[in-house]
Write a structure and sequence with these properties.
The chain is an all-alpha fold and about 500 residues long. Helices cover about 75% and strands about 0% of the residues. It contains 23 helices and 2 strands. A two-stranded parallel sheet has the order 1-2.
Length: about 500
């Protein structure tokens, strides 16, 4: 293992401080977060139908996502979700970091012979998650909205961990270790397939690609990849043939194949744009390329048959990447008649970024005989990465959302208290102000003599990552609130008299 010099320690400390600074607003915002309509549906169903009856009812009438439904139900039991709504956001951030760390530490230990220190691996995991969050089309549904995040970000974290566990299984020194890591890998496969259809398809593509490489270059591992693929097919079938998913899909007319192909390709371009628009991605991509060059030279990987294969077909790798992403979109676009929410795009962005990282490593190793930059230039590059972690739109928007998020928390707290109190009354009636009117009341409370125009604009701007919609704006959401709080009527006042 390389030991960090004093200069290296200072550089990596700078990176670590940047990462802590980046994630701090996310932690603060999680405590300002509040449940919304679909969360209340889950709460009411668990309360009224019971834990296991809800699993049965959902699988047969609404969704085949057996794992995300099960996990969401656990968090909703005894109103835990609604008492500690901040928990899921913090949990998913930590789990995402842990998943990437398991992957990178596995690669470092078994493939790179512990080339990097643990500190470097931890920081690399943090930077990767920053790039991922910055690339997401919609952070609110990836982390803050529980009903979405538990179905989308949870399998993303398990995807990283599953690859790491599979590597550890292949290199395990003892039978007990091999059994432990193989069971962890199998759990991740089953959980991913039971959490989200999009990421399940990505997992299938990844298993097929890995299977091709293993059959061609690592035949001793054929048994393991065959077992993983069989488990994948079984668990994916359980997801795909669920009566709930079938009934829901039947309500949406399928798109024509030509239309689906065109929209899928357009979505692919949009996916790449979300990643390539980030300066942090470009700096890190350059750094990964350089590191791959250095590692390939020092570990003498240039003679690897795998690298020789990729060198032979290097001109086709980028085309293959675009094709894989487009094919990943195709069945979903076809079944949804060309319409996918942004949270679905997040799932493809995650997979695309992972494949791009793999290609950068491959290209760096392939061209390891090219000139390598001096160490001083590497330090400047790392300093640029540290600065860019904080100089991006996402970090600015999370900071900006803290102010409006504070008042969002006040508005939603008052609303939930009134709904709770109304549920205890005999007449079961609640009278609420809509969000904008309630927000004005909060502003008058904190600024009785009025606030400066700039401050008022900052407060009245909806917190981008917390505010998805006002539950009081539609009859559908009002009915959900009435069901959860067991109310007869909810009267909404739009303007203060």
């Amino acid at each position: 293992m390389n030991k960090l010099s004093k200069r290296d320690q200072k550089v990596y400390f700078f990176l670590f401080v940047s990462l802590i600074t980046f994630f701090t607003p996310f932690i603060i915002l999680s405590f300002f977060n509040h449940p919304s309509a679909d969360d209340f549906i889950l709460g009411a169903k668990i309360r009224d139908e019971g834990f296991w009856n809800y699993q049965h009812h959902t699988y047969f009438t609404w969704s085949g996502r057996y794992f995300s439904n099960f996990f969401a139900s656990i968090l909703s039991a005894n109103n835990f979700l609604f008492k500690y709504y901040y928990f899921h956001c913090l949990f998913l951030i930590v789990l995402s970091l842990l998943g990437v760390y398991i992957l990178l530490s596995s690669i470092n230990k078994f493939l790179l012979k512990t080339y990097y220190t643990r500190v470097q691996v931890i920081i690399a995991a943090g930077i990767y998650i920053v790039i991922l969050f910055c690339s997401y089309a919609e952070v609110a549904t990836a982390l803050f909205w529980f009903s979405s995040a538990i179905s989308y970000q949870l399998p993303v974290a398990l995807f990283f961990a599953g690859i790491g566990f599979s590597i550890r299984t292949a290199y395990a020194a003892s039978f007990s270790q091999k059994l432990l890591y193989s069971m962890a890998t199998i759990f991740c496969i089953i959980a991913i397939n039971g959490a989200n259809e999009i990421i399940a398809l990505s997992l299938g593509a990844f298993v097929l690609i890995a299977g091709f490489i293993i059959f061609k270059f690592y035949p001793k591992q054929k048994r393991a990849i065959c077992i993983y693929f069989i488990i994948y097919l079984v668990s994916f079938t359980i997801l795909a043939i669920s009566p709930g998913s079938t009934e829901r899909a039947a309500e949406i007319p399928a798109a024509g194949l030509l239309k689906a192909g065109g929209v899928a390709f357009a979505r692919t371009l949009y996916t790449f744009w979300n990643i390539l628009k980030e300066p942090l991605f470009w700096l890190c991509a350059f750094f990964i390329f350089l590191q791959s060059q250095i590692i390939s030279n020092r570990l003498d990987l240039s003679g690897s048959p795998v690298l020789a294969f990729f060198f032979k077909y290097r001109k086709w790798l980028l085309i293959a990447l675009v094709v894989v992403v487009t094919i990943n979109y195709l069945p979903l676009i076809y079944l949804s008649n060309g319409s996918l929410p942004e949270r679905a795009t997040n799932s493809i962005i995650f997979f695309t970024l992972l494949l791009i990282a793999v290609l950068l490593i491959i290209f760096g190793a392939i061209y390891s005989n090219k000139a390598i930059l001096p160490q001083a230039t590497i330090y400047f590059l790392i300093a640029g990465i540290a600065l860019t972690i904080l100089c991006n739109r996402l970090f600015f928007s999370t900071l900006q959302s803290i102010v409006s998020g504070y008042f969002f928390d006040k508005v939603m707290t008052v609303r939930e208290e009134e709904l709770s109190e109304a549920s205890k009354r005999l007449n079961k009636k609640a009278v609420l102000y809509n969000y904008d009117t309630s927000l004005q009341q909060q502003m008058k409370h904190y600024f009785p003599t009025g606030a400066r125009k700039q401050v008022e604009e900052l407060i009245t701007k909806k917190p981008e990552h917390l505010f998805l919609f006002d539950d009081l704006a539609t009859d559908y959401n009002l009915n959900i609130l009435k069901e959860y709080y067991r109310l007869d009527t909810i009267t909404v006042i739009k303007k203060q008299e």
